[in-house]
Write the structure tokens for this entry.
Amino acid sequence: MNTHHSQVTVDSERSITIRDLPFEEGDDVEVFVVRRPAKTKGSGTAATLRTSPLAGLWPNRSDLPASPEYARSLREAAQHRRS
């Protein structure tokens, strides 16, 4: 199976045009049109984490260690692991 991938934008008439295909005139082809997922803006950055509603979600939980202490214990454990 010979395939070709193109990224195009739907125009004001809700149509698309694909040019310069690597097929010959008269070739039978199948066309699938799939909407690309929307781009997320700035996900995964420190700034988005700081403004996330998840930050500080459980500030008064006594059963969870404080973040700096927990991070320190993880680093300490990683330093003493054998390769």
Summary: The CA atoms of residues 19 and 57 lie 52 Å apart. The two ends are 46 Å apart (CA to CA). The helical segments are 46-50, 67-79.
